[in-house]
Here is the input.
Amino acid sequence: MNRSFAVLGLGKSGRAVARELAENGAEVIVADKSEELVNSMADDVTVAMIADLTSAEAIKGLGISNVDVVVVTMALSLEASIMSVMVAKELGVPHVVAKAKSKRMGEILSKVGADEIVFPEKEAGKALSKKLLSEDFLDYFDISDDLCILEMRPKDEWVGKNLIELDLRKKYDINVAAITVDGKMKASIDPHMVLTKESSLLIITSKKNYKKLI
Here is the structure.
C-alpha cells in the first residue's frame, strides 16, 4: 500500500521532496502561500493547495489528518513551521518531519512535536524523500550518477532468515556491504546470521533498484 504525505512549504527542497515522492507512487498533498508555486506543482502531485501556513484553521483545512507523514519545509519561517508542526500533531499525524535552519530552531520544533528534524545543509530534498518512501529506510547517500548507498531495516518478510535464504542479490540486484548488530556496524558478514527486526543493512545498489525495496 502506498504511503501518503503532505509537504507544507514549496521552496526548493519542498518541491524536490514532493516531486520525488510523487514520482515513486506516493499520494502527495502540497501547500504553500504562493499561488505561483502551488500552480507549478499541480500536475505533479495528488492535491496542490494555496494556504496561509501561519493559520491553524488554514492548515486544518488541508485534509492532512489521515496522511502518514507531514513534511514541514519552511526553514525561513519559524512561525509557519511551529504552527504546521503543532497542528499536524494535534490532528494525529503519526510522523512529522520538520526542516530547521539552525540547531536552536530544531530544538524548538522538537519541543512543539516534530518527530524528526532535518537541517538543509546536511540533507537534500531528494535524499530525504527516499528515506520517507519506506518506514524501513534509515538513510540514503548518492555515491555516483548511477549508484547509491541505502541503510535500511530488514523487511518483515526478511526477519528470521539469513542472507543465503534471502538471496537478495538475485531477487533485488543489491549488495549487502555491512550489517548492524547490537548497535555496531560489521563489514565482515556471516551469511548464516539470522536477521532480526533490530538489525540494519547497509546496501549498495543502482538508483533504479532501490525502488524495488519500497
Summary: The first helix runs from residue 12 to 23.
